[in-house]
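Lab meeting prep.
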Amino acid sequence: MTKLEESVNLGPNALKVHHLVLSLALTLTFAAYYGTLGFDFVYDDRAQIVENPLAHSWRYVPRYFTEHVWASIIPGSVGNYYRPMFLLWLRLNHAIFGLRPWGWHLTTALCHLGVTLLVYFLAAKLLRDRVDAAVVALIFGVHPVHLEGVAWVSGVTEPLMALFFVPAFICYLNGRETGRRRTLWQAASLLLYAAAMLTKETALVLPLLIFIYEWIFAAPAIKPDTEAQESGRLWTSILRVVPFGLLTMAYLIQRFRVLEGFGHRVTDLSLATILFTWPSLLWFYFKLLVWPPAVSPFHLAPYVTVPGLANFLIPVSAVIVIVVLLARLARYSDLHAVGFASAWLVMPMIPLLDLRVISRGELVHDRYLYLPSIGFAMLAALAMKLALRRKTMESASPLMKVILPATIALVLTVMTVFQSSVYANDLVYYSRGVAEEPENENLMVNFANVLADRGMYGEAIALYNHLRARDPGSWPANYNLGHAYFQMGKLDEAEEYLKRAIVSDPQKPVAYLFLGGTYLKENRLDDAAAAIRQGIRLDPVPNRYHLALGLVLKLQNNLAGAVEEFKAEIAIEPNQAAVEQIAEISAQVRHP
C-alpha cells in the first residue's frame, strides 16, 4: 500500500471500490458526451472558429496577447474578455482538425474528462478518502449543468480554465506538504494559475480559495484562545497568498493595458437593482445544481428593480435555508471539508455579481457553474455519506455504500445525453431558443439566418420583418434582411436594407462588403470599390474583403491593383480563389 493510501486509512476492499467508482466516473463521463462528436458548430462557434481568421493562422498568435477575444470579430467593440490561452486552444484545434467539428468536440470532451480526473485528485486531498473522492468525480463528471461548457465548442473556456485551475490548487497543496520539491510545486502552481487567468477571468478567485484553505485547514487543532494566536493565523494565511497576489497584479496590469480598463460596463444598472437581484441569482444557480432537468442554454432571469415576495423575499429565505443546511451538514460531518467545499461553491460566483459587465439577456448561463459545481459535488458526496451512516449500514461492504451515488450518476448521465441534443446544430439550437425566449431579438435573428442559409427565405424574411416592426432601425434586422435579398438576387431590396443598416450603425464593416457585392452585380463598379474599401478601413483583418475588391478592380481592368488585393487576401489567410485569380491575371498578362 502506498503512503497516500495509508494516510487516508483505507483497507484493500475500499481501495478496490475506489478503483471501481473512479473507472465508472470516467466511463460515464465520456459516454455522456460521446454523442457530441456528431454535433456541428453552433451559436458563437461560427464567429469564433469558422469565420475568425485569427484562429486559422499561427502568424496571429502575438495578437492573442494584445487584443480582447472579439477584437477581430467585431472591430472597434468594447472588450471584457482577455483570454489568450483560449485563442491558442482554438488555433491548435484548427491546426489539427481544420473545420471538422467532430475533432473540436472530441478535444472539448477530453478536456472535461481530464478535469473530472483532476477533481478526483483534488477531492482525495481535501476529503482524505479515495472512495469519497471517486464519488465526487462521479457526480461532477456527468452533471447536466456542464452541457453548455462541453457540448458547445466555444463553451470550452470553462473546462479549459479548470484544467489549469484545479492542478494549480493541487500543486499548491503539494508544495505545503513536500520538503525538497516544495519550490518546484510552488512554481508549478504559479505557472498553472497564470495559464488559468489567461484562459478565463474566473480564475482570479484562486488566491481567495488558498486564503480560505489556510484559515480553515491550517488552523490549530484547538481553537485559538488568545488574540495573538488569532492574529498569527491571519498573517500566516495572508503570507501564503502573497506570491499569487503578486502574479494577480501582473495579470491585471496587462489586462488593463489590453482592454483599456479592468472591465467595461455594458449594462446600466443602479446599485439597488444589482443588490436586489443577487438573491434571486444565487437561488437560481443553486436550483440548477440540485434540479438538473432545469438546465438549458436559454434562461429568463429578469433584474429585480422592485423587491417583492417572489423575486426577493423567497430567494433571500431560500439562501438562508441553504446556509442553515450546510451548517447542519458541517456539524454532523467533516466541519473543515464542508466549510471549504462551501467556499469552493460560492467563491467562483463572485465575478458574476458585477451585473453591469454582463449583457442583457446573458445574466444566467449554466456554464458559469462549471467551477462552482466542484464544491457542490464535494458537498453532495459528504451529504450522501452522512445519509448512509446508519446502524444498518455500519456493517455493509464499501461497495454497498456507493450504490446510491452510482444510481444518481446513471440518472444524471441519461439526462445529459438526452438534453445534449439542443447543441446538435444551429437549426435545433435556435428553434429551441425562440420557443423559450420569443422576445429575444438575437435568438430570432440567428434563427432567421439559419433558415436563410438553408434556403428557407420566406420564413426568414418574415422573422426579419417581425423584428423591424418592433424596431425599424434595428441593425441586425436590416442587415440580415439585405443579406437575404442579396442571396436571392433581389438587388434593389438588398441595396435598400443594407443602406438602412449602415445608417443604423456605420461602424460595422460587413454591411459595406455586401453593399459592394450588390453594386458589383449591378455593374456599378466605382460604387462597389468605394463600399468595399470603406469596409476594409473599418476591419483590421478584412477576411474576403480584399478578394472582393480585387474582383472589382479586375473588371475595371486595373490588373496590378487587383493582384495587390489578391495578395493582401492571401496574406490574411490562404485563399484558393485568390491564388487562382493571380494565376489567371498572370496568364492574361503573358498572353494578352
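Slide two material, second protein:
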Amino acid sequence: MLLCRYKPPLREVFFAKKMTEKYIDQEKLNIVENAIAVTCETDLKALGVSLGVASDQVSKQIDEYLTGHPGEMLAQTPQKISQQFIAGKSLMLISREETPRVLFHGTMYEAFSLNYTRVVEIGSVITDTEFRGLGLATRGCKKILDHLKAQNHNTLGIATIKQEMTAIVLAAAGMVPASYHDLIHITNLTCTCPEYSESFGHVCPFRRSKEKSTPEIFTALTDKTHPPEKTDCTLMVSDRILAAEINKYYREKHIESGGFPVSEDISVETMQLIAGFFAKVALYEK
C-alpha cells in the first residue's frame, strides 16, 4: 500500500497561517501592554537591565531605522543616550520578558519654565522594529505625557512634526495640532534651527501657514482613512487650553519685563524680541 503525505487544501493552509499570525501578534501585543515605563537608572536596574545595555539597544535601533530613513533623525551613541537618561531627558519602555529589552525610547527636553509653568518638547522616538504596528509609539508618547503631568500639572508638552503618521501617533497619545500663529511665544521655543528660523534672522520655509491652520485641516491631518504623507511642519500640544494660558502668561511677563507688545505675526523682529525675553529670564533664573 502506497502511503502519501497529506496535503491540506490551500484554503485550510491560508486560515491556519492567519491564525498563527494572529496568535503571534497577540503575544507581541501582550508584551507591549505589559511593558514598564522607566525614567531613572534605579528603576531600570530593578528590572534587571543595565543602563549600558539599554543604551546600546536604543543606539542600534536608531541605526537600523536610519538605514531605511536616512536623515530623518540623528544617530546617537550609547554614551549620549545614557547621558540623556541620567539627566532625566528620556523615557524607556522595558519589556517584562525573561530577558528584558527596550521596546521604546523617547526624548523630552525642557524648552522653558517660569514660576509654575513649564514647556517640554518631545523629541525623537524610536521603537523596536519587531513590535511596530502595535501602538507602541503611541503608548510610549502617552507615558511621556503622563510622566510630565505627574511632575507638574502645569507642564505643556509640545512637538513639531513633518509627517502625517507622526501626527496620528501623537494624536492617539492625546496631543492635538495647534496654530503657531495663535501661540507666538510658544512658537519661539520651537524656533531653534540656525539655518532656517526667524530667531536667527531667516524666514522658515517649512512652518505651517496661518491659512493652513484651520480646524478642518487639523482634523484631516490626523485622519487615518488615507495613506499618511509628508506635511508642513506642524505644532502639536498636549492641551490647547493650557497652551493658550501659558502663551498669554509669557506674553504678559514679557511686557512686564520692559518689552512692548509684539506683533501677532511671525517675523524675524518678533521672534528675536521674544528670544531676548526668554534669554533674560533664563539669565535671571541662574
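Talking points for slide two:
The radius of gyration is 23 Å.
The chain has a mean pLDDT of 88.
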